[in-house]
Amino acid sequence: MNSKVETTLNEQIQKEEYSSRLYLAMAIWCEVNGFPGASSFLYEHADEERMHMLKLVHFVNDRGGKTQLMNVEVPPQEYDSVLDIFTQIKEHEMFITESINNLYGVTVDEKDYTTGNFLQWYITEQVEEESLFNTILDKIKLVGRDKAGMFHIDKELEGMTGGSPAAAE
Ligand SMILES: [Fe+2]
Ligand SMILES: [Fe+2]
After folding, report:
1. Cβ neighbours of 125 (radius 10 Å)
2. Which domain holds residue 114?
């Protein structure tokens, strides 16, 4: 495997691992602050990010490379509100999209079309995630500080979880 591509893939693995940890920290905050729906949703999303990481790990290893794990930062653990959390998620997902795009750029420069083709899945996934988080964030902004409105959004987020083991009790 092209070493420049391999290094950049390993950096992306670290970022997906951090995403998973970030959403775990946010899920924990929601759980102890009375937002069970947002919490379930974020626990499940932490699992999804771990799946994104594993998909990259297997790809690197299957293509004759070897995944190098790197240090993963401790994410912030205190948040002001659910609005604060989803605002930060949107920013984080935009950062990840940029990172995937840069990674794709490396595969083009290195003429590694196999990896470029593999990355299409991530490019599509980022479009979906950005759109999902924009929708949620717009709803949260709409209710503002209204407690009843926030209660409904929390219920709605509960309904958006697919019932993965992590989202359950
Ligand atoms: Fe991801
Ligand atoms: Fe994501």
Report:
1. 16
2. 3-167
